[in-house]
Amino acid sequence: MLDHPLATIENLRVEFQTKDGPVVGVEDVSFEIRPGETICIVGESGSGKSVSSLSLMRLIEYGGGDIAGGRLLFKRGNGDEIDLAKTDQSLMRTIRGNEIGMIFQEPMTALNPVFTVGRQLTEGLRMHKGLNKAEAEARALDLLKQVRIPEPERRLTQYPHELSGGMRQRVVIAMALACEPRLLIADEPTTALDVTIQAEILALMDRLKRETGTAVMFITHDMAVVAQMADRVVVMFRGKKVEEGAVEDIFERPQHNYTKALLAAVPKLGEMRGKAYPEPMKLLGKSDQNLDPIKGSDEVLLEVKHLTTRFPVKGGFFRRTVANVHAVEDISFTINKGRTLSLVGESGCGKSTAGRSLLRLVEPQSGEVHLDGKDIMALGSNDLRAARLDMQMIFQDPFASLNPQMNLMSQVAEPLQNYGVAKGQELQDRIAALFDRVELPRSFLRRFPHELSGGQRQRVAIARALALNPKLIVADEAVSALDVSVQAQVLNLMMELQAELELSYLFISHDMAVVERVSHDVGVMYLGRIVELGPRAAVFENPQHPYTQALMKAVPIADPRNRKDERELNFKPIPSPIHPVGYEAAPSEYREIGAGHYILTTDSGY
């Protein structure tokens, strides 16, 4: 490695102007990035990780921020060292994309919905590298091959909405790498991705870094990803840097209390070996925790039989149905009172559709759903409304599920008012109690969703789901967008509520370590079918279906000395779930290989 750093951040201070005066986003942060090195910046949302990276790109001004102090030194390709904090925006335009590339967290907002993928990839190449149309297109095709997108020629002519989340994120990575930048800033690039795609993208970034010598500034809150990728780690907390060191030192000998708490909050795959029941995590600084295992009961609450949900694909002049998306194909399971069944699998496998079908938020084609003796599929609209008192849903994106124009008190009060459960002072007391339950300060009652962090918004969504004392909660990726420590608190909160109120959860997730922590039973979904179903210990410690085995292999482990090799990852491309109208799917048949442990014998396509 060269001695001279590529980028140096010195005493950076960033302020945001608000109605109540300036708010400091980052205060006195310093670190450097050397060529060919991966430096991971970790911390929770609101700790200033993204603010530091946006300052380096000088995009912070567009987000209402102001670099109030410090220097951002960057060594350009021609050997000049410049202070990016004082560079004018026209020169920054040349540097952005050309010398510093950035991968954003949310691929759908990073891509322009009205231009094809090819147009967006070639734009930067023609602007920065002066290539003509044909050269730029050839390079764009080459980039898509590099990030391993299937059928790259076809993808160039498609629009972003026609690609899955994982593919969109690969396009964003290809765009960031297009001009071979010397520094690549990756802001939470794998948060929204499946385990298998995340493993491939991390291996891809690592390989590209080795081949091109690019320095990588990787921003994440996933400690397993840090263990997999980092050379050095910078830990941030409330706008300040609290610790910096080599990745092994941070994981094995953390010095600062915050780093210790962060590492304690990471659920590690394999931690639950030998434990029959889920139990809350032991968090630092919380001495009054109840860590008893959650046994649940033997009484069946939810019974699902042969549930099938399909979506029509319209086409032709008369918009007739020409094919169907087989989103959920003949799945059956039961959930007992006070217990958790987790559905895991990659995006597009039908797990969210399965959860929504239970509540009839999407109408299933066929199948039976019995909740506490009630046949949900046979209910008319009034009865269904009454039945929904017993079942609630927590969605993946709390910002989309909250109304931006209502304050939080009104949002949590809404279900109580709709069902006429409480009013007046009793209503206010119940809402305040719910806020205490999810550990949000009561001063937040008058706030609006945009004034909260992601973790706080998700707690509001949980408070709202709990307002009607439901028996079943469908949690659809409820903690996937949260920070490690917030995720641990929210999971503990959900488990404590489960033990206290005998709640049952259908927990939909792609985070295997979280699933291992919270589940009594696990169902692995692939292409609309459950391919393996059984008690958590059986599925995790003795996976039998080849897809489950591949999924387990892909999970990154929070141990820098136990990194995954790219050669271990051999995923087959997922076949299309779209079939012509007359297509008859074979019924799902299972073989029992242990007590309550079943694997699919029908051909699942894997």
TrEMBL record:
Keyword Nucleotide-binding set for record: yes
GO cellular component, one term: plasma membrane
GO molecular function: ATP binding; ATP hydrolysis activity
Subcellular localization: Cell inner membrane
One of the GO biological process terms: peptide transport
NCBIfam families on file: PRK10419.1 (NF007739), PRK11308.1 (NF008453)
Name this protein carries in UniProt: Glutathione import ATP-binding protein GsiA
